Write the structure tokens for this entry.
Amino acid sequence: MNDRIREILSWYASENPGVRTNLARMLNHGRLGGTGKMVILPVDQGFEHGPARSFAPNPAGYDPRYHFQLAIEAGCNAYAAPLGFLEAGVSDYCGEVPLILKCNNHDILNDEKDPISAVTSGVSDALRLGCVAVGFTIYPASAERTEMYQQLRELTEEAKAAGLAVVVWSYPRGSSLSKEGETAIDVVTYAAQIAAQLGADIIKVKLPGAKVELAEAQKVYQKYEIPISTLAERVHHVIQSSFDGRRIVIFSGGAATEDEKFFEEVRAIRDGGGFGSIVGRNSFQRKKSDALKFLGTVMGIYEGSVK
Amino acid sequence: MNDRIREILSWYASENPGVRTNLARMLNHGRLGGTGKMVILPVDQGFEHGPARSFAPNPAGYDPRYHFQLAIEAGCNAYAAPLGFLEAGVSDYCGEVPLILKCNNHDILNDEKDPISAVTSGVSDALRLGCVAVGFTIYPASAERTEMYQQLRELTEEAKAAGLAVVVWSYPRGSSLSKEGETAIDVVTYAAQIAAQLGADIIKVKLPGAKVELAEAQKVYQKYEIPISTLAERVHHVIQSSFDGRRIVIFSGGAATEDEKFFEEVRAIRDGGGFGSIVGRNSFQRKKSDALKFLGTVMGIYEGSVK
Amino acid sequence: MNDRIREILSWYASENPGVRTNLARMLNHGRLGGTGKMVILPVDQGFEHGPARSFAPNPAGYDPRYHFQLAIEAGCNAYAAPLGFLEAGVSDYCGEVPLILKCNNHDILNDEKDPISAVTSGVSDALRLGCVAVGFTIYPASAERTEMYQQLRELTEEAKAAGLAVVVWSYPRGSSLSKEGETAIDVVTYAAQIAAQLGADIIKVKLPGAKVELAEAQKVYQKYEIPISTLAERVHHVIQSSFDGRRIVIFSGGAATEDEKFFEEVRAIRDGGGFGSIVGRNSFQRKKSDALKFLGTVMGIYEGSVK
Amino acid sequence: MNDRIREILSWYASENPGVRTNLARMLNHGRLGGTGKMVILPVDQGFEHGPARSFAPNPAGYDPRYHFQLAIEAGCNAYAAPLGFLEAGVSDYCGEVPLILKCNNHDILNDEKDPISAVTSGVSDALRLGCVAVGFTIYPASAERTEMYQQLRELTEEAKAAGLAVVVWSYPRGSSLSKEGETAIDVVTYAAQIAAQLGADIIKVKLPGAKVELAEAQKVYQKYEIPISTLAERVHHVIQSSFDGRRIVIFSGGAATEDEKFFEEVRAIRDGGGFGSIVGRNSFQRKKSDALKFLGTVMGIYEGSVK
Amino acid sequence: MNDRIREILSWYASENPGVRTNLARMLNHGRLGGTGKMVILPVDQGFEHGPARSFAPNPAGYDPRYHFQLAIEAGCNAYAAPLGFLEAGVSDYCGEVPLILKCNNHDILNDEKDPISAVTSGVSDALRLGCVAVGFTIYPASAERTEMYQQLRELTEEAKAAGLAVVVWSYPRGSSLSKEGETAIDVVTYAAQIAAQLGADIIKVKLPGAKVELAEAQKVYQKYEIPISTLAERVHHVIQSSFDGRRIVIFSGGAATEDEKFFEEVRAIRDGGGFGSIVGRNSFQRKKSDALKFLGTVMGIYEGSVK
């Protein structure tokens, strides 16, 4: 284990050796192993958006085994998916890539204003499937957030006792936020802070915009002239807001977009001190050869081999 | 055990031997045993629609023993019913047909917009009654779906630990869907995907229509020109959406209809790669001799002896 | 044990010997013991309607011991009451009459549109008080019915494991039913079917009227010309709807009424194949000597000694 | 133990010896010990109405120890209070007065139409504090009453298993009752009946007025000419409605009032066959010397030494 | 242990030795150790108000380790924070300052009218992190208060059984209170009383204003001429309302304000018999050297070395 990984693990000194071992497994796996950076492949869109919207662009993705193969060949640090997808493929790939069991899920067949995901799996599933971590989504700003925080607390307590790391997707959504407000810089940093305070080992947030949503926060951003004009500055502010850089925070790119724009965002994450990316639709919604090339560029930017 | 059954079981490699044994029991039972196709007799209409609507057309069906006899004589792969119906007949037919205990039920004496079924039995009941599987209905699109998914998750965890297979009826219903939308192709495939992600071993959906309900989905169906004009194509798309054919999906015919129309649907299921039918009202709401003939034709289509 | 009782018990072959023993205790007790008919004394009106409305007509009934004495002297098959009434009298009458602990209760101090009873006692109470069965009310058609079905399921599971029989009061009530609809023939038979499917050993329903409430049901009653014009025909249809006569179904007479009218109803229950009556207000709201005479006539009709 | 106490205990023959022992401890304690009458000091007003409204009239009452001293010096049968008040004083007075732990409480900082109290302590607390009983308030007529009855049932089951007696405050309140209706004679007797049916050992109700609230009840009161014109008659009717006098029922005097009026009420309780009083604000909201004199008169009326 | 600490501990004679030991650890720690006064550093604002609003004024505070250092160097009696903040720093400071785990938290991304905090950690966390106490916020006046009281009761029961002290933040908030009403004298004293009755060992309230909110209370304040015109008088009244001074009550200063005004408030707390301050934003939102000076003055006022 190199010094950078030792340093990162030192931030988790309150965790038991089991949790730190599983964090190390992710940090030391794949092409970015040992760099302290991470690229994770998440595939929960079949549940979250429906199968055709997720897999029609690259029908190979209907097969649960495809995503294991993609994550392995691309050298991702981990692969995250719901119960069904992991169960339907894991037996062919035991031990080939660290797995994160996504333990709650939300569909859009009834798209309520204040969403809450259903708890769809848990620690015993993660253990029997050989996972290194559990994943959980919270929607701060939803009227249902109290319930979600408490579900996460229960999952976290049980997961860590079993030596599993906890990865939290913290996505502000709800009736009291505008669409743009969901990625406002003060809202994203608040979401990261909440996840950190709830005990998340790895935090996943969306890339923040320059908007400040809350009036009380706006006063502070102006008074203290917090720099948030560039994306790298905003990433830096997110990292700062996550215990001053002492928690692993990774960013999602969101909807499929132009490659070069995506790479620019990755550079901003890197320059702002972010720990990496979680890349779903931009990777599995193109042919595998294209995806491997795409992910190769992303990882190259993080490891410094690509500008 | 023949190669086709071995192949099907290979998709369930994450399940323990108990679950795979019970899947094999269903796949190898009855006239279609060993073909990889299934015809299941379900009789929960007494609870779901009331006794007269269910049994007046063929009053022999008021007697719980009748349906055991029908399933056995017709050579069905399994018989599914609620607690009371199984309890009131099983002692006379122990081991003669694989049984599925339907563990939740809904009546229409108070027909709410966003339905949820009551949990009416569970794993301990299934075990003491000699069942091979538990059955559970979810209504994706209902505002109550989160609760149902979580109930299913608990049942699934307990059932599989006891070696029971899990059969999920996935029927989109709720205030946000039109009646026609309940069988829209994007909605039915989404419902199948959700059931698969939740860990269903066998998925039961309704035959889909050609409508696409959700605007975001419609864009994808058009852009990628997903073929959905024939029923067989739509069945194929459902199968694809259920882990690319690696989960058993069977179809319900719905309300009683003309026989020839029903057989046409069975042919489409067969041609689209579906795994079989679950035939309730079309079988038990006619005289037993007629029902045996009718089911014989259905099975004949699946096994290839009838065109 | 005579053949009729053996036959009745054979319908309950799925139950453990403890439950069948307690069913036999009721069937073999009192004046109607061994006939396969039952008359049960229920006294939960103090809770359900208030004390003065219940006991002012015959103030002896304020004393919990009175009802034990009445049930014993009349030769009833069983006496059913809430926790407090049983606790306050049982010590003086241990083993003299089979007891049914009514485990949920409802008052009318806040008479909501969609009622649910409170769970007021349970299996451990029934066991320590020497009861043979637990009783539970469900209100199909109430928006709260899902919760009630699930409470009943839990009680049933626990009760049967302890060898107690389960008696279900199935009374359709709720915002979606008219007052007359509560005793419509399709609604009462539906309520009986639901109780049977939920695992009830003994089902108690109200005597049905000739109205058909639900439009979908009405089509079936007309198409198949189900005979429901006489009370005896309707009783027969209820029995048919309760697993074709393979579950014990008894009827309540409702509010106090003229004796001769009541006896006519008893004859219809007998002629329609019903298993007996549960007689509350008509028995305990008159002097004991009158009540004994009244109940004697009822039992006489059932045993055939009175026309 | 004298014959009257033996007689009272005989009504509780279903209770285990532990419960009967604790009932005896209260009945045999203090100035009224052995008379079968009780005067209990309750001090939960700090929680229910706020501290200044409760204790400003006699600031000594801010100190939790004061009320122990008052109950002991006055010779009350028992002292009842919430967790905090008992915890903060009990160590100085172990065994000097029977204690009732009031296990739920309600404040008026948010005074809802359909109240429910919070469960604030339980059986393990009562046992470690040396109590003889638990106390619990229900609000029949509140839309939340079902939940309260079920909470009481759980508490009762646990308490009696531990040998503790159960004291129920049964106060009808809720959106469907007028203020005057809360003390209507039919409503108060109904509330007493419900408490008795729920298994209360001691029932506390408010003194009833002559109004009859419910239309259905009114018919009965008129038809049977139930005497309710004097307070003593109404007390008698409450006692009758509580299992014909076979449950201990005590009455609260309500808000502080003129002493002579209060003594008149006590005489009516005595003459109507009531078992005693629970005297809160009228005792602790005056100087201790005055309170001792006041309570002395009340006890004198019950024991017959004062007219 | 000196006599004052012994005296304070004597008020907690009902607590087990474990709880009293942990109370003693706080009372005997830091600069005010042994004085019977306390100054506690709480840092939950990252969760409650968001990271920038909390830490931008002094960015060193983004780092969880900073607050441990501040509390230690300032000689605070204890440091209180949510799970994440304690976990991320405790390993470097084991045993250097008594820790209070704040077990519930609330954010303002969805700021509802009747708030309830999410339970975010518990007793097992407090124990594994070496804490001396758990902290919990209740919002009396919220429509959700019943749930909060019951959550607190469960936490308290478990915490005290494990020897942990219980610190309750009692902040009236909710739809039925005006903003000014939240700190009305009758409301704050009521909130303190509720916390005390619920079993709090240490109570934290806001400094009260001179307003009386509730009409019924106003009558009492006027009739008994309760002195509430000066802040010291109001503090005295809060202490009186918390079991006549037999519970430790500390006060929060609220939002950052001018230093001299803050010191005046501290003097009023001291003069009114308050037990100390909980100082968050006024301490960690300035440079550490300034904060140490500021806290030094506060402590000096309490210990008498500063006027």
About this structure: Strands of chain A lie at 38-42, 78-81, 99-102, 104-105, 118-119, 133-138, 165-170, 202-206, 248-252, 276-278.
